[in-house]
Amino acid sequence: MRGDRKALSPPRGAVPGALNDRAPSSEVDTCLSRQDEPMSEFGAAFAQAFDLIASLDGDFVEIVVRSLYVSLVAVALAALIGLPLGAAVALFRFPGRHFVAVLLNALMGLPPVVVGLTVYLMLSRAGPFGVLDLLFTPTAMVIAQCVLVTPIIAALTRQVVEDLWRDYSELLRSLGAGPARALPTLLWDGRYTLFTAVLAGFGRASAEVGGVMIVGGNIDHLTRVMTTAIVMETSKGDLAMALGLGLVLIGLSLAVNGAVYMMREVAVGTPP
Amino acid sequence: MTATLPLTVTGLGYSAGRHELLRGITFVLDSPRRLVVLGPNGAGKSLLLRLCHGLIAPTAGTIRWNRPDAKTRQAMVFQRPITLRRSVSGNIAYALSVRRVARSERAQRTRDALKLTGLEALAAKPARVLSGGEQQRLALARAWALRPDVLFLDEPTASLDPAGTSAVETIIDAIHRAGTCIVLTTHDLGQARRMADDILFLNQGRLVERAAPDDFFDRPRSAEAAAFIEGKLVW
Q: In chain B, what are the domain boundaries?
């Protein structure tokens, strides 16, 4: 299937997407002669991309499924850690609580490549977890995305739970509920807002490329995911594959956001 | 079984920074009466309730209950009803679970509390969609389900219309008749006349006088109380 696709590669020596002043004159001619074609080329690329999606191309589906697997597992793990962590920082009083809150907020902006590099060092043969032999596996990618997403979920959870605690604290303390009893109550009562926090984490995980590229290696049929595949296929000039994956990525984002929006609407209309 | 009362408050004070919000409050509550804490806005009524209920620690004086586990035998209803994002009956069941009431007993207590407050038909409704009056009745139902010996009510009708106020006062009466001591704050003179067996009059963080309602309204001992009754108290 992939062999049938027309490679839309830029001329040798040309910088993709820009005029290259240093290109040989014959190649400049080629570029100029193709200037009236880009719209039709983009149209063809889009058509091929839609074909790829509609025909459920094997390679294509494999990449999409792996991407979803890696991101969903990473976000699930990050939620398991981040939700109680954020709620605990909001509810319990301990020395350094404010520092932890600031740290969580700061870690929301962790650069993915730095996370990738750190996880790489931890999992490499010389690293402390090298013996686990996880480098260049989907598990390593899950770990990298989990590290990236956990602070986002924890920081947003802290804010949500702190606001709820402000509303509920007198009632819960009056009933005799301490912070440990209040924690699951507030997580449950803040569930619709917290879904948004988890969704923000999913958005970050599914769109991330630097970290998974470093620890996963973008190995075909093993660790290639949508974002790393888009980077690779674009550099190869296989715009159809890149566009197809890009469309699926956007579609997924829209679908997940739409689902959460609907859920919130239903919740606001008739909260359980 | 040892009774929760008497409650003995001695030299109670509370300061926030350099501001003394309550000072030298001393009184004893020794029987399950309806004690109304009366006073203008900012007199320290709500603060006194929170201190007695243990939500805030005093900065001066002592609060002594007759039994060490008295906290678990009290309940409080706040001026602004606080409802959890659960159904009406779910709100009551949650309070019972926090107080470790046996599961077998929860359903019956929930039904009783809903019946007392007239919320049976709304049992399955989300609490957040109730009107203000219904939410306050739910708060009363949740508190009553705990079978408290003492029920603290912080201006429970402050944001209600006359019909809502009347409904809430009827429920409070029923709870009191069942043997619960009521401690209620208000700045509403009419409500104090209707509800009080005993009045504590507070002004500017001080306990100005304690009296039976007839004595308080007909023969106030202090100039401040007289001015408050005439609607002339300015501070």
A: 7-229
Q: Superfamily assignment of A58-226 in CATH?
A: MetI-like (1.10.3720.10)
Whether B85 sits inside 8 A of A171 (CB atoms) is no
Going by their DSSP bridges, the two strands B60-64 and B7-16 should be labelled as antiparallel
Is a pLDDT exceeding 80 seen at residue B182? yes
Q: Which segments of chain B does DSSP mark as H helices, in order? A: 45-53, 88-98, 103-117, 132-145, 162-177, 189-195, 213-218, 223-229
Nearest residue, CB atoms, A167 vs list B55, B82, B99 = B82
- Considering only CB atoms, which chain A residues are within 8 Å of B126? 270-272
Taking CB atoms and an 8 Å cut-off, how many pairs form between chains A and B? Answer: 44
CB contact under 8 A, B87 and A188: no
Burial class (CB in 10 A: 0-12, 13-18, 19+), A271: middle
Do A176 and A194 meet the contact criterion of CB atoms below 8 Å apart?
no
- How many Å lie between the alpha carbon of A84 and the closest alpha carbon of chain B? 19
CA distance B157 to B189: 13
Is B34 within 8 Å of B198 (Cβ atoms)?
yes
Tell me whether residues A171 and B71 touch, CB distance under 8 A.
Answer: no
Q: How far is B143 from chain A (nearest CA, A)?
A: 9
CB A243 within 8 A of CB A10: no
Q: Which one of 3.40.50.1000, 3.40.50.720, 3.10.560.10, 3.40.50.300 gives the CATH number of domain B7-229?
A: 3.40.50.300
Does A268 touch chain B if contact means CB atoms closer than 8 Å?
no
Q: Which amino acid is at A123?
A: L
pLDDT digits (tens, 9 = 90+) for B203-214: 999 999 999 999
- Domain limits, chain A: 58-226
Tens of pLDDT, residue by residue, chain A (272 residues):
444 444 444 444 444 433 344 444 444 444 444 455 666 777 888 888 888 888 888 888 999 999 999 999 999 999 999 999 999 999 999 999 999 999 999 999 999 999 999 999 999 999 999 999 999 999 999 999 999 999 999 999 999 999 999 999 999 999 999 999 999 999 999 998 898 899 989 999 999 999 999 999 999 999 999 999 999 999 998 888 899 999 999 998 888 888 878 877 776 655 44
In degrees rounded to 5, what are phi and psi of residue B77?
A: -115, 130
pTM value?
0.82
ipTM over cut 0.90: yes
